[in-house]
Design goal:
This protein is an alpha/beta fold. The chain has 15 helices and 15 strands. A 9-stranded mixed β-sheet has the order 7-8-6-5-4-3-2-1-9, with helices on both faces. The chain has a 3-stranded antiparallel β-sheet with strand order 10-11-12, with no helix packed on it. It has a 3-stranded antiparallel β-sheet with strand order 13-15-14. Helix 2 packs parallel to helix 3 and helix 12 runs antiparallel to helix 13. The longest helix has 17 residues. The radius of gyration is 21 Å and the shape is globular. It binds iron/sulfur cluster. Iron/sulfur cluster binds next to loops.
Length: about 400
């Protein structure tokens, strides 16, 4: 990992909020997924109505603000009909000064068609995040993914033909029975299609998911740490070989192609979330919508309170800073810690010395970054640095 301090913000961002839209539908439940979604699309029109109403009626103080990033996430936003997407985008335009430098939509290979790509481009979407996950049909099935390798390749061909300015792919590593050869096939797509951005995640067993049950019933055995390490190293190596530098523990980009919206999260910029379970951050407030599709729709329409919020104290803000920034190559800024989180500075310095001695963190001028060994123990390091009423 290149630990030299590196500016994470590739574009100058204004103080306006980013916008996140949560579209909570999926065709089927992937075995490892613990996001909030429904496989029943019958409420889609009602949901779009509720999201539009939420856009029109909430966050009054931000109305008319300049918005530079919009992120369609989920769930699977590519399942929405064109008309529904148009309605949401029009409502956003009516309520914000929308001039998105980056407008991303998550999509799955099976939803990609040339005419839909043209429509999305016309709508202003300029960045697709394609859920490739793995280039092996048996492993895709084992994860209960719906798409096939052939659909992925066709989707990538169609996206290349449509000429989307920005494309990122998601890959998963550490899948039971996944070989390095299979992982390499996925990574080779970076060169084959000149893809400028990659998000690569280790498969994790989240509570109450199908994978969690499979592991607990011993139907599935997760790979050992050695395999995760070697997959992670292969991802880094191949990403770098294709000209993508790591800028966050799971994210790699060619220069200038770093994700602007996600970078906002890591740098503490405000963002507004619309849709069930969507989170918003309006410092010092964090707000989250009810994670229930039908209750969200009913409560928005009947003008009940459909969100909860908390005002973040200094301790929570400090902890969030640690959790998010430690994952970036930019690292923790010592000046920022002493100026913003003064009361925790002495505690932080003590913990930092121990972690530096253990070879897990390295000081780079006024910054602190993970070492190569630290990258494998990021959660442990965060916990050691966080203030948890000790
Ligand atoms: S498509 Fe994405 S959001 Fe939907 S179940 Fe699969 S991983 Fe989860």
């Amino acid at each position: 990992m290149n630990l030299a301090p590196k500016p994470v913000l590739p574009h100058k961002q204004t103080g306006g909020p980013g916008i996140y839209l949560h579209i909570p539908y999926c065709r089927q439940a992937c075995s490892y997924c613990n996001f909030y979604f429904s496989t029943n699309l019958s409420s889609a029109d009602a949901l779009v109505g509720a999201i539009c109403k939420e856009i029109r009626t909430s966050f009054e103080e931000w109305r008319g603000s300049k918005v530079e990033t919009v992120y369609w996430g989920g769930g699977t936003p590519s399942l929405l009909h064109n008309k529904s997407m148009e309605l949401i985008m029009c409502t956003l335009r009516e309520n914000f000064s929308l001039c998105p430098v980056e407008c991303t939509m998550e999509c799955n290979p099976e939803d990609i068609e040339p005419n839909r790509l043209s429509f999305w481009k016309e709508l202003g979407i300029n960045r697709l995040s394609l859920g490739v996950q793995v280039l092996d049909d048996i492993l895709l099935q084992s994860l209960n993914r719906r798409h096939t390798v052939a659909q992925t390749m066709r989707a990538l061909d169609d996206i290349a033909t449509a000429g989307f300015p920005f494309l990122t792919i998601d890959l998963i590593y550490g899948i039971p029975h996944m070989s390095e050869t299979v992982l390499m096939k996925g990574l080779d797509l970076l060169g084959q299609y000149d893809i400028p951005h990659l998000s690569a995640y280790a498969l994790t067993v989240e509570e109450k998911t199908l994978l969690w049950h499979q592991v607990h019933k011993k139907q599935v055995a997760m790979p050992n740490d050695e395999l995760f390490r070697s997959h992670y190293q292969l991802v880094k190596l191949m990403a770098e070989k294709h000209g993508l530098a790591q800028y966050e523990i799971s994210n790699y980009a060619k220069p200038g192609f770093e994700a602007i919206h996600n970078t906002r999260y890591w740098n503490g910029y405000p963002y507004l979330g619309f849709g069930p379970s969507a989170h918003s951050y309006l410092p010092p407030l964090r707000q989250w919508n009810i994670p229930n599709l039908h209750r969200y729709i009913n409560m928005v329409q009947s003008e009940e309170i459909y969100w909860e919020q908390e005002s973040l104290g200094l301790d929570t803000s400090y902890n969030e800073y640690i959790i998010t920034r430690i994952r970036t190559t930019q690292g923790l800024d010592l000046d920022e810690i002493s100026s913003r989180f003064g009361p925790y500075n002495a505690y932080f310095s003590g913990q930092l010395s121990v972690l530096v001695q253990k070879g897990l963190l390295a000081r780079k001028g006024d910054r602190v970054c993970l070492t190569t060994e630290g990258e494998f123990l990021c959660d442990y390091i965060s916990t050691e640095l966080m203030w948890i009423d000790k």
